[in-house]
């Protein structure tokens, strides 16, 4: 069996592979599987079926496990009343734009800091990393004031997607992750290319980027989920009904909308993230531990 | 802070007068200048974004907190904003609530994921499934998950999921968000469910790096399971445990969306008002961006102070 080659953990393999140990192991595993499924999937089931119930059924005591008279109309109601198609489109648009800006600008910056190393590069890196110490919510007011009247440029970014895309680039964690990965790429690989007369752009494009696919994947996933999950910032800078993100739109409508319709909208907002997660779960899981925690 | 060295100031290359000295030296210098310029070119985009959306707002936040803007006119007002915000009747309530949330979240949200990770690390089956499960809620948009809790779980009548479950096992039901006493525990429960997965996966990665020989040796010395956890597992993951505690405190102190959605902001008898919610209130409903900025600075000082003291204490222990 392949498991033998793994290092042992708290309890040795021998102990759980026969007799009483084996019985305890299996009963514990089955209990954990059932409890975890109930705790982590149960609420999602409750949400999907709750949105299918009629308003009187939702207020019924005790609650029904399965809607007695399923109302799929709640979902179509939510779709139309909240203009979810538009909200979903906005959110995807902001997420993909933020992804593109971060990939291009953060990768370029990390490459400069790791390989080109211009003078004062370390000071710039230090100033970037210092922002990791500042909790995001603390800066929300001055950031908002900056966005409504950009210094030097004298323009307002309110309701402009740039208000989400550009602040997303100022992500020191991304730059740190990318730079650390680039640092591990041997210089020899590049010096050979330099001999052949390849410029910095060429080296980045045809040597560094192809090797860096795993870390680029991690950064991309973080970029997309961050925009999708964010609430306060898009609520402030995208205030118009036409530019809202899906989370903000649902919140804005929650006041005057029946509960089952709000929950249906919440389910629709969650579906893309769940699909995204199931597709990319491997990279997401490995990415989580990539932040210098594993070494 | 390193903010003083804002963007692009490093480009003093242009000040070097072009001179025609000996050839190889000039060539080398030209090359260096060119390399530096290429480097700055690659850095420029990110540096501009940092300058506009991180470095400048940091300074602006502090400056704003000593100013007052009324009808387009900005004047310096000294500590007036701080004075006003500290005398806001909700100021101390917000701090008390936020600290209470942080402590409750530490009790529930800190130890629990670690022990779940220790438990999950022992299983040699269904590993992938269990990991996907615990991380699933982390992927949900918080607004979605919180409406689930608000409408379907924390319903104060017996139609809600939690009250139905409590009733089924014969326990007294709760008013949840309608009860000032239950508001915080209910918010901690929702928040822990939403966020625990990340911590579990990070702990799992740390646990996998513990050399098996250490457990082997402990077992040979007759250490039981509990002794092995306290003498091997915890010391071996101490660094990550202390880092996660700090990150968690800083994250939970920024409590905002839970009160906003679950408690409509302030909650029953102000039981949910958090510091960030107060910032939001002042900034966007009381037309007091300057007071909000002052509260932001107070929070920043508190959190940086906490991190510094915490790091210091940790360093001493080593």
Automatic annotation (TrEMBL), chain A:
Cellular localisation: Cell membrane
Keyword Cell inner membrane: no
Top-rank taxon: Bacteria
Major location category of this protein: membrane
Annotated transmembrane regions: 23-46, 92-113, 120-142, 162-182, 203-228, 261-280
Pfam family name, one: BPD_transp_1
Membrane topology field: Multi-pass membrane protein
GO cellular component: plasma membrane
Keyword Transport: yes
Keywords assigned by UniProt, alphabetized: Cell membrane, Membrane, Transmembrane, Transmembrane helix, Transport
Gene3D superfamilies according to UniProt: MetI-like (1.10.3720.10)
GO BP, sorted A to Z: transmembrane transport
Domain ABC transmembrane type-1 intervals: 88-280
Family per similarity comment: Belongs to the binding-protein-dependent transport system permease family.
This protein's name: ABC transporter permease
From TrEMBL, chain B:
Gene3D superfamilies: MetI-like
Name the record gives this protein: Sugar ABC transporter permease
Source organism, top-level taxon: Bacteria
Membrane spanning stretches: 37-56, 99-120, 132-153, 186-206, 237-257, 292-313
Protein localization: Cell membrane
Organism from which the protein derives: Catellatospora bangladeshensis
Membrane topology: Multi-pass membrane protein
Any single GO CC term annotated in Swiss-Prot or TrEMBL for this entry: plasma membrane
Main location: membrane
Domain ABC transmembrane type-1 residue range list: 95-310
GO biological process: transmembrane transport
Signal peptide: none
Family label: Belongs to the binding-protein-dependent transport system permease family.
SUPFAM superfamilies: MetI-like (SSF161098)
């Amino acid at each position: 069996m392949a498991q033998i080659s793994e290092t042992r953990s708290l309890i040795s393999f021998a102990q759980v592979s026969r007799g009483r140990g084996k019985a305890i192991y299996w009963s514990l595993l089955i209990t954990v599987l059932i409890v975890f499924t109930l705790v982590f999937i149960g609420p999602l089931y409750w949400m999907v079926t709750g949105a299918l119930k009629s308003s009187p059924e939702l207020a019924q005591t005790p609650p029904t496990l399965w809607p007695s008279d399923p109302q799929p109309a709640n979902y179509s109601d939510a779709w139309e009343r909240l203009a979810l198609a538009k909200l979903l489109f906005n959110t995807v648009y902001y997420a993909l734009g933020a992804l593109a800006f971060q990939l291009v600008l953060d990768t370029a910056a990390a490459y400069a800091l790791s390989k080109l190393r211009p003078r004062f590069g370390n000071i710039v890196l230090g100033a970037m990393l210092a922002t990791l110490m500042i909790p995001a919510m603390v800066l929300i007011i001055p950031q908002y004031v900056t966005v409504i009247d950009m210094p030097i440029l004298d323009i307002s970014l309110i309701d402009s997607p740039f208000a989400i895309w550009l602040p997303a680039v100022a992500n020191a964690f991304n730059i740190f992750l990318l730079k650390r990965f680039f640092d591990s790429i041997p210089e020899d690989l590049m010096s050979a290319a330099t001999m052949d007369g390849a410029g910095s752009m060429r080296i980045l494009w045809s040597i560094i980027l192809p090797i860096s696919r795993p870390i680029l994947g991690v950064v991309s996933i973080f970029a997309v989920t961050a925009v999708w999950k964010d609430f306060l910032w898009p609520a402030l800078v995208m205030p118009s009904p036409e530019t809202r993100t899906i989370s903000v739109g649902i919140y804005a409508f929650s006041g005057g909308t029946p509960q089952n319709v709000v929950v249906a909208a919440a389910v629709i907002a969650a579906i893309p993230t769940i699909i995204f997660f199931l597709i990319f779960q491997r990279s997401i899981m490995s990415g989580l531990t990539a932040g210098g925690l594993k070494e | 802070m390193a903010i003083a060295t804002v963007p692009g100031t490093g480009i003093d290359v242009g000040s070097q007068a072009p001179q025609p000295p000996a050839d190889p030296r000039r060539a080398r210098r030209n090359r260096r200048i060119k390399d530096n310029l290429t480097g700055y070119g690659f850095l420029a985009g990110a540096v501009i974004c940092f300058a506009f959306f991180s470095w400048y707002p940091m300074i602006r936040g502090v400056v704003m907190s000593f100013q007052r803007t009324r009808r387009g006119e900005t004047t310096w007002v000294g500590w007036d904003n701080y004075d006003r915000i500290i005398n806001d009747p909700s100021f101390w309530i917000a701090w008390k609530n936020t600290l209470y949330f942080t402590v409750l979240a530490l009790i529930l949200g800190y130890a629990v994921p670690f022990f779940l990770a220790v438990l999950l690390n022992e299983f040699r089956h269904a590993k992938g499934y269990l990991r996907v499960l615990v991380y699933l809620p982390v992927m949900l948009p918080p607004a979605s998950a919180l409406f689930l809790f608000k409408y379907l779980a924390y319903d104060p009548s017996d139609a809600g999921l939690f009250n139905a479950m409590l009733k089924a096992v014969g326990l007294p039901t709760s008013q949840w968000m309608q009860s000032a006493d239950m508001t915080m525990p209910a918010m901690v429960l929702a928040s822990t469910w939403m966020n625990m997965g990340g911590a579990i996966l990070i702990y799992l990665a740390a646990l996998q790096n513990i050399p098996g020989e250490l457990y082997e040796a402990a077992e040979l010395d007759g250490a039981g399971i509990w002794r092995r956890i306290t003498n091997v597992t915890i010391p071996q993951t101490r660094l990550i445990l202390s880092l996660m505690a700090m990150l968690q405190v800083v994250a939970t102190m920024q409590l905002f969306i839970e009160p906003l959605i679950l408690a409509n902001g302030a909650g029953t008898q102000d039981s949910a008002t958090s510091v960030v919610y107060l910032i939001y209130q002042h900034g966007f409903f009381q037309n007091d961006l300057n007071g909000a900025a002052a509260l932001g600075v107070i929070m920043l000082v508190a959190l940086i102070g906490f991190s510094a003291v915490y790091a210091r204490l940790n360093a001493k222990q080593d």
